[in-house]
């Protein structure tokens, strides 16, 4: 059997129904082995960055390993952004790159290049993969494929890269004689009895407990166990950006998203808690602010994460539990956790007061307010929609004010956070979950990075709806320049421009519409969602649109801008408020 055919057979055997790629000479044998396959669909993208991110979206939405392929040299390096995103956000993907023949590879020769488009992609991506291997012997192919799938899913998931030279691709192999990988390993670590007893005791004694749900809960497939724990205890839940769709927003215990751009009421809740169960979150500065010592300073923090390197790495915690989230939550639920129900009920009412005082949106009469627009959008989304957001202001408006319900998903990048990611994420998600609508929420700046993938949407007639909020600038950086650089808007406004988006989209034979007034919103939604065909809606908003509330440097998370009156803030705090100048560098 030709080795390239063995590779495709193996991918199909592992449940890879789609492979995202851009063609190239060093990929020719693998592409030929995909020809006329009925069990694996080849999705030809129009940029390798988009192909890598589509594989990421496929994995995020489907829960299995996404696969993307690219040729050597520029094809391989163009995938790096998507590879890095999978690494930072713990997304299991396999990236396969074609490479020049082994006899054209420089190996240890002190030259820059031997073969045409030869690039040592293995060494380049080493810091952002769980492993990367150049396969030089055809008899090793089964071992490396099996090991790659094992590594991608084992422990904290992530990407693996296999670089396959052309002469290895075209080699003949005997499948029965190939070396296998032994993936027998330790079972997920069970939390210690002492740790579990302490967690139970902390919950029982707590007056103001909170659960902070991170992306690790969804990655661990532990959403059912999380719901069971909340139903048993009634403890209020906040999420990080990456944990937004791990808990339904219409549940009475859901209390918003925390962080720099979090809901003010969620930040106040965490700031006033006396126990914080941090589940599957690394507590990065986007959550804690730049003064991590002030984060949940009145609480005993219990941090649970599968990656021991993330425990206590950024915030001092009372108890660190290195454990798979599903194993931890199952164990906790089995022990019958108890809380003082009267105190927890009273605490939820307090947070409800925060929420009533500081809603995430205010209805607008004339111009379109982005937060109110997201609230309106929530009412029109199908119950199983997959919302894919780009980064920047639109990501935060969506995170602050969308209401995720039922089986809806919120797919976005956290660690890499590259502009232009939403459209390829939606493409990958659409193939992973056929029949479900993918809704792209993008900004005018980011959308221009991967506009070409509208052709992929049209070619496959994918049920992708694109909503583009156009404020004619790079809004998030502009907001930063206004705050810290005296309004010198270099490259965000000055030097920036955008096309006529509806005209561009219509060139891809996708229907497009543009609106600019709040009175047009409801009719536009009816047009956008009337069927499952691809459609595009441009929403023109003010050039001065800002994300608020926003946490400034050197402030604790409860003190976002625009700042509350000191007496009002003091009335909402169970702790002493921190002066604005305290701890400034």
How is this structure best described in words?
- With 585 residues, the chain is an alpha/beta fold.
- The protein folds into 3 domains: 3-177, Rossmann fold (3-Layer(aba) Sandwich); 193-357, Rossmann fold; 370-540, Thiamin diphosphate (ThDP)-binding fold, Pyr/PP domains (Rossmann fold), CATH 3.40.50.
- The chain has 24 helices and 18 strands.
- The strands form 3 sheets. It has a 6-stranded parallel β-sheet with strand order 2-1-3-4-6-5, with helices on both faces. Strands 9-8-7-10-11-12 form a 6-stranded parallel β-sheet, sandwiched between helices.
- The chain is globular and about 75 Å long.
Strand segment count:
18
* CATH structural fold name of the largest domain: Rossmann fold
Structural class: alpha/beta
As a percent range, the share of helical residues equals: 25-40%
| Separate helix tally | 24
Q: Quick one: biggest sheet? A: 6 strands, parallel
Global Rg? 25 Å
- Quote the beta fraction: 15-25%
Looking at CATH, the homologous superfamily of the largest domain is Thiamin diphosphate (ThDP)-binding fold, Pyr/PP domains
**Domain module count:** 3
The average pLDDT is 96
In the CATH hierarchy, the architecture of the largest domain is 3-Layer(aba) Sandwich
The low-confidence runs, each spanning 5 or more residues with pLDDT under 50, are: none
CATH class of the largest domain: Alpha Beta
* Strand neighbour order, sheet with most strands: 2-1-3-4-6-5
Principal-axes shape call: globular
Q: Give the distance, in angstroms, between the N- and C-terminal Cα atoms.
A: 65 Å
């Amino acid at each position: 059997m030709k080795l390239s055919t063995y590779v495709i057979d193996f991918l199909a055997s592992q449940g890879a129904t789609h492979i995202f790629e851009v063609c190239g000479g060093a990929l020719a044998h693998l592409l030929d082995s995909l020809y006329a396959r009925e069990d694996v669909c080849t999705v030809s993208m129009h940029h390798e960055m988009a192909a890598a991110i589509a594989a990421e979206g496929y994995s995020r939405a489907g829960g299995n390993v996404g696969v993307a392929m690219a040729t050597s040299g520029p094809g391989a390096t163009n995938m790096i952004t998507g590879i890095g995103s999978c690494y930072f956000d713990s997304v299991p993907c396999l990236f396969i790159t074609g490479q020049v023949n082994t006899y054209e590879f420089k190996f240890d020769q002190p030259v820059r290049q031997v073969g045409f488009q030869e690039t040592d992609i293995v060494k380049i991506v080493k810091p952002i993969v769980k492993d990367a291997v150049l396969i030089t012997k055809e008899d090793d192919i089964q071992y490396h494929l099996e090991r790659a799938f094992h590594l991608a899913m084992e422990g904290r998931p992530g990407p693996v890269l296999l670089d396959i030279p052309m002469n290895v691709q075209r080699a003949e192999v005997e499948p029965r004689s190939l070396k296998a990988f032994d993936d027998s390993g330790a079972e997920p670590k069970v939390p210690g009895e002492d740790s579990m007893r302490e967690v139970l005791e902390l919950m029982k004694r707590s007056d103001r407990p909170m659960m902070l749900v991170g992306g690790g809960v969804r990655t661990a497939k532990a959403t059912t166990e999380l719901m069971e724990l909340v139903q048993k205890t009634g403890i209020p839940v906040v999420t990080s950006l990456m944990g937004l769709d791990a808990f339904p927003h219409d549940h009475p215990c859901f209390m918003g998203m925390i962080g720099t751009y979090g809901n003010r009421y969620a930040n106040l809740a965490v700031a006033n808690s006396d126990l914080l169960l941090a589940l599957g979150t690394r507590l990065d500065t986007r959550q804690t602010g730049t003064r991590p010592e002030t984060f949940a300073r009145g609480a005993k923090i219990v941090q649970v994460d599968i990656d021991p390197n993330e425990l206590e790495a950024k915030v001092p915690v009372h108890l660190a539990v290195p454990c798979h989230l599903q194993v931890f939550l199952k164990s906790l639920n089995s022990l019958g956790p108890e809380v003082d129900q009267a105190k927890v009920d009273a605490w939820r009412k307090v947070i409800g007061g925060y929420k009533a005082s500081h809603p995430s949106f205010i209805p607008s009469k004339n111009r379109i307010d982005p937060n109110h627009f997201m609230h309106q959008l929530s009412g029109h989304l199908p119950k199983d929609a997959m919302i894919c957001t780009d980064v920047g202001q639109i990501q935060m408006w969506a995170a602050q004010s969308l209401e995720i319900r039922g089986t809806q998903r919120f797919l976005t990048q956290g660690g890499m956070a590259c502009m232009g990611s939403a459209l390829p994420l939606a493409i990958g998600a659409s193939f992973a979950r056929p029949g479900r609508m993918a809704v792209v929420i993008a900004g005018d700046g980011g959308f221009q990075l991967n506009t070409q993938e509208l052709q992929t949407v049209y070619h496959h007639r994918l049920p992708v709806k694109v909503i583009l909020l156009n404020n004619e600038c790079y809004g998030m950086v502009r907001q930063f320049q206004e705050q810290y650089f005296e309004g010198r808007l270099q490259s965000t406004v000055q030097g920036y421009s955008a096309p006529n988006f509806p005209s561009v989209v219509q060139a891809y034979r996708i229907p497009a519409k543009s609106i600019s007034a709040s009175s047009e919103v409801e009719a536009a939604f009816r047009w956008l969602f009337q069927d499952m065909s691809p459609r595009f809606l441009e929403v023109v908003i003010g050039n001065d649109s800002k994300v608020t509330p926003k946490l400034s440097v050197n402030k604790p998370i409860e003190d976002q801008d625009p700042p509350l009156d000191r007496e009002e803030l003091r009335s909402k705090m169970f702790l002493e408020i921190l002066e604005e100048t305290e701890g400034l560098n």
